[in-house]
Design goal:
The chain has 692 residues and is an alpha/beta fold. Helix content is 44%, strand content 22%. It is built from 24 helices and 27 strands. Strands 18, 19, 20, 21, 22, 23, 24, 25, 26 and 27 form a ten-stranded mixed beta sheet that branches. A five-stranded parallel beta sheet has the order 2-1-3-4-5, sandwiched between helices. Strands 7-6-10-9-8 form a five-stranded antiparallel beta sheet. It is extended and about 115 Å long. The chain starts with 6 loop residues before the first strand and ends in a 21-residue tail after the last strand.
Length: 692
């Protein structure tokens, strides 16, 4: 044992000062010791009941219990604790007598070196016993696991002693129509075999038991409960059951389809994590691409990379690194569930294939994943390990050639996130990829202009539904592009380019103008309908935009209150002055303003400062809301502050009734998300239906 390892020493001495002297002798020799003092047999007994020490040091004195009484006490309490007995004169007879009465070591009070050597020997004894206990515990656990595996095995397994059953698992009992182990204990193995094969089995067992058999396998006919027989293969091996030597018998029927299936599954799994392996994931992605040849579905691929994994392994070792990977895999499996294909793709890389998933849903899940991993602390071999991850996302559609193509783009997106400092998310798009060097910006200027001219922009609408009073018809307006190949392109793939090229302002005006025309068309039948329209930071800073909005609404005979402009929280944080001026301008003309993605920057003070009409709570706070107590508290606080200033709250990305149940309790005014309805080009939602 290492001297630095701390041990607990119980010192039995009538005088506390004498006890401190013994302890000081050992500590001066470099031993780390926690000590307890006992002055008689009763106090020692109490000490043993509360916390058993590693070693007992017992002095010789007329007022102390004799050594025999101490060892008898240890026997009564079933404790194996080494005892060092200190005597005045260590004669041969005295040492022998002490050993006979249970002392591990018997040494004189002086010199101190004798006590040190005795203590060192006892330390080794303690260590060996601890190791033996650990090995015994591990053996018991291994036997339990083995027993559990045998009991749950689909193979029929029995244990035979002198031709009689002593135990059989569930599959064995089921094979022969038996209900319990008690029904088979003590019955001959011959009872399970067709009568014509009895001699064959007897001869085999005789040869096998004598060690003369050249094989451990026997083809035989088993006997079913109804008297019918079946072809079976018996496999014999020496074993133990409950400490008794016996023979293990495994019976397999001629049909090994299940076994082959199990082996097939193992070839598709990562050994360390149990997730799909790299080859299986590539196969699954290729299959998804080949199956959806029409492009009617949208799939997404998420690439998750643990940040600074090499550096982490330097602290916890490679074995610790494996444990961290396994811990991360379990965490991700809990986050994504069975609806996706989750794989370990590399040393510290994981991939997720989500079928029929939108970019918005994937981004929401990715953000939840990023936050969860960032907040997770893994306990690895006594180390508290924190980590972050970089996430890349690639959209799979009919133009995706193969898995390699999609994976390389997701990997590229992940690398962009990692190289930007890590703990980030990046969505891949060909446009972004091509424009990284800045050489293609003029080309994209032309592409966006041509898209507008060719009317390949279109709007999708998602209902925003009131939870209390009927607020009429409310939709959020969402922008989409259909490229020349008919592929739908979401804003995340082109907005950043539009912002860089200065085209985003023109796009905002196109969205508003188109939405107003749609709103004007439905207003005669649906008076009071409201559209929520997103705008960029460029438009917020555009001083001419409010006047243009007023004139456009007036020319279409629409009330200014029929439009709610969605201002991103990031704009208020980065450019508060222009944001405040925009809000004031909109108030003057009668349009309402909503702060969207609220909560991303954790600036609750903005609520009272901005004076807007609505707050749209960011979807990352709504995601997994029933399981996230921190987000529950944040949402409650946002709603409370908003209502104090007479603002209404919208919860976006609501995906299920469990989310709805909590949001109802929090007095949320509006909800939006795929649980209500996915975005659609049609305005067909029935706002009179109650939300279930």
């Amino acid at each position: 044992m290492n001297h630095r390892e701390s041990l607990t020493l119980a010192v039995v001495e009538p005088d506390a000062c004498d006890a401190e002297i013994h302890v000081a002798t050992l500590r001066n020799a470099g031993y780390s010791i926690r000590h307890e003092h006992a002055w008689d047999l009763d106090s020692l007994a109490g000490l043993l009941d509360s916390s058993a020490p590693d070693i007992i040091l017992c002095g010789e004195s007329d007022t102390l219990p004799d050594l025999e009484a101490v060892t008898r006490l240890l026997l009564e309490k079933d404790l194996r604790i080494p005892v060092i007995f200190l005597i005045g004169e260590a004669t041969a007879d005295a040492v022998l007598a002490a050993r006979r009465h249970g002392a591990t070591e018997c040494v004189p009070y002086d010199p101190p070196l004798a006590l040190q050597l005795a203590f060192d020997h006892c330390r080794e004894t303690v260590w060996l016993r601890q190791q033996a206990d650990r090995l015994n515990t591990a053996l018991q656990q291994s036997e339990t696991r083995c027993r559990d595996l045998i009991e749950s095995s689909r193979d029929a397994i029995a244990y035979i002693h002198e031709g009689m059953h002593i135990h059989a698992n569930h599959s064995y009992l089921k094979m022969f129509g038996l209900g319990s182990t008690e029904e088979i204990e003590g019955t001959p193995l011959l009872n399970m075999v067709e009568r014509d094969d009895h001699k064959l089995l007897k001869d085999f067992l005789r040869e096998y038991s004598a060690g003369n058999s050249t094989s451990n396998k026997l083809e035989i006919r088993g006997l079913e409960p109804d008297g019918k027989h079946f072809k079976a293969g018996m496999e014999f091996s020496p074993s133990h059951f409950d400490g008794e030597e016996c023979i293990q018998v495994i019976i397999r029927t001629a049909n090994n389809a299940e076994l082959e299936q199990q082996l097939e599954v193992l070839t598709r799994q990562d050994i360390l994590t149990g997730l799909a392996n790299r080859q299986e994931f590539i196969r699954t992605v290729n299959l998804a691409i080949r199956t959806d040849i029409t492009g009617a579905q949208t799939h997404t691929l998420t690439y998750i990379l643990v940040d600074n994994f090499k550096k982490v392994c330097e602290d916890i070792g490679m074995s610790g690194g494996d444990k961290l990977i396994k811990n991360t895999a379990e965490l991700l499996a809990g986050l994504y569930g069975d609806e996706v294909t989750l794989a370990r793709f590399g040393d510290c890389a994981f991939t997720v294939l989500a079928k029929n998933s939108s970019e918005e849903d994937t981004l929401e899940q990715a953000e939840h994943t990023r936050q969860t991993i960032q907040g997770h602390v893994a306990e690895i071999d006594g180390h508290a390990v924190s980590m972050t991850c970089s996430i890349g996302i690639c959209i799979i559609n009919e133009n995706s050639r193969n898995a390699e193509n999609v994976l390389s783009r997701a990997d590229l997106a992940c690398e962009v996130a990692r190289s930007s400092g890590g703990n980030q998310i990046h969505v891949h798009s060909l446009a972004v990829e091509e424009s990284m060097d800045g050489e293609h910006e003029p080309e994209w200027d032309q592409v966006i202009r041509k898209t507008i001219d060719d009317e390949r922009f279109y709007l999708a609408y998602q209902p925003i539904v009131a939870l209390s009073d009927n607020a009429g018809i409310c939709y959020e307006v969402l922008l989409r592009i259909i490229d020349e190949k008919g592929q739908v392109i979401l804003p995340g793939q082109f907005v950043s380019i539009a912002e860089k090229t200065g085209m985003i302002g023109e796009i905002d005006r196109w969205v508003f103008n188109t939405a107003v025309k749609t709103l004007a068309d439905i207003t005669p039948e649906n008076d009071g309908a409201t559209f929520f329209i997103k705008i960029s930071t460029d438009t917020i800073a555009d001083k001419e935009f409010p006047v243009w909005v007023f004139n456009t609404l007036k020319s279409n005979d629409l009330k200014t209150c029929s439009v709610v402009f969605e201002v991103p929280e990031s704009a208020a944080v980065s450019d508060l002055k222009n944001t405040m001026m925009f809000i004031e301008s909109m108030k003057k003309i009668g349009c309402r303003v909503c702060i969207e993605h609220f909560g991303r920057h954790n600036r609750p003070q903005l609520i009272s400062h901005l004076g807007v009409d609505l707050i749209k709570i960011d979807g990352s706070l709504i995601s997994n809301l029933p399981e996230n107590k921190e987000n529950q508290n944040k949402v409650r606080e946002i709603v409370r502050l908003a209502h104090e200033t007479e603002m209404q709250c919208v919860a976006e990305h609501v995906h299920g009734p469990s989310d709805l149940a909590l949001l109802w309790q929090y007095d949320i005014d509006f909800i939006q998300g795929n649980f209500v309805q996915e975005p659609s080009r049609e305005l067909g939602y029935n706002f009179e239906d109650e939300i279930a």
